[in-house]
Amino acid sequence: MPKKIPIRQCVACRAHKEKPQLARVVRTPEGQAVYDGRGKLSGRGAYICRSLDCLEKAVKTRALSRELGVEITPEVYDVLRAQMKEDGV
Ligand SMILES: [Zn+2]
Q1: pLDDT tens across 18-77, in order?
Q2: Domains of the chain with CATH codes
Q3: Distance in Å, CA 71 to ligand 1 centroid
Q4: Residues 50 and 84: beta-carbon distance below 8 Å
């Protein structure tokens, strides 16, 4: 039996995708939002497609902030943008 891959929902387009296809942003216990590149940080997570379209949509709608209940700093968005360009989806 293949290992079951968890499904998560993108905060921007609401599509359900396999977890590795999504970028994860985590609210740390200190109340900061950080990009979780390896998907291993503990804390409340929000997921977004590895796509600049979804990212810009999330910036506009503040979907990540609402999901996590904390402000997303411009630095976090910059990291996500760079990451998504690299992933090139
Ligand atoms: Zn999406």
Answers
A1: 999 999 999 999 999 999 998 889 999 999 999 999 999 999 999 999 999 999 999 999
A2: 7-87 (3.30.1230.10)
A3: 20
A4: yes
